[in-house]
Amino acid sequence: MLLGSGEFTPAMDEVDAAILASIPETRPTVAIVPTASGLEETPRSWTDMGIAHFAGLGANGEAVMVVRRSDAEDPRWSEVVGRADWIFFSGGRPQHAIDVLAGTPFWRAVLARVRAGAVLAGSSAGAMMLGEQSYTPDDFDENGVPHSVGVRPGLGVLPGHFVIPHFDLLARFPPQQVDQWTARWPAGLRCLAVDEDTAIVEGPGGWTVRGRGRAITMRSFAKQTVHAAGTILDGIAVAL
Question: What average pLDDT does this structure show over 131-153?
Fold first, then answer.
């Protein structure tokens, strides 16, 4: 599940409830992992939001405080995700999440649990980190707009792809700034762009767009294919 934004809010109630209904457990356990916000003061607020949100939907939320690389090497957190039915990475900075997780026992435990049938979800930076490559926004202004954007290898769960969340917000940014970002397009990769309060969810029939917005696939910023809510995307492989 890849979200443009909206994790743990009423905007995702219907989508999350449908996923929970597909899990055989009577009261599923959702591991809330705020890794991407580890450079901020918000990790606990993300886990508190997640726990409250999923409690309202009849599930147990569990805070998994992997915010530094030393946390990702601590076996207790690997044990926690090893029993989760759903592993949910919230937003922040993708480069921090990648630095913390790549090659660690915790990340290996996440992948093993997903191979065993657990749901994997990432929102905003938590979705960006899953690509073969990831944009790395940095140096944010007072409105949360990044002045600089780089590109680096991601965690590789989505080979051949990279993810842009909050895509509908790009219309508010100065065109010359957007042009600078798109000039750094990861060569040869397809972009999965997702609007706010919107998700693409993998299921038996493929990846379906859910929520209030759209998903956009593109090989370049100039050639966009728009997928409305309810439509199915193809060609998205997952490597675990």
Answer: 81
- 90-113 average pLDDT score: 97
Contacts 24+ apart (CB under 8 A), 48-54: 49/7, 49/8, 49/9, 50/7, 50/8, 50/88, 50/90, 52/8, 53/8, 53/9, 53/12, 53/16, 54/8, 54/16, 54/20, 54/30
d(CA 123, CA 4) in angstroms, rounded, equals 6
Please write the tens of the pLDDT for every residue from 105-140. Answer: 999 999 999 999 999 999 999 999 999 999 998 766
Average pLDDT over residues 195-204: 96
Q: How far is CA 240 from CA 97, 109, 112, 139, 222, in A?
A: 17, 11, 8, 32, 31
What whole-number distance in Å separates Cα of residue 92 and Cα of residue 36?
A: 4
Q: What is the dihedral of CA 152, 157, 162, 164, to 10 degrees?
A: -100
Q: Structure tokens of 181? A: 């970002």
Chain mean pLDDT for the chain: 94
Question: How far is Cα of residue 38 from the mean position of the Cα atoms in its chain?
Answer: 15
Rounded-to-integer distance, Cα 236 and Cα 238, Å: 7
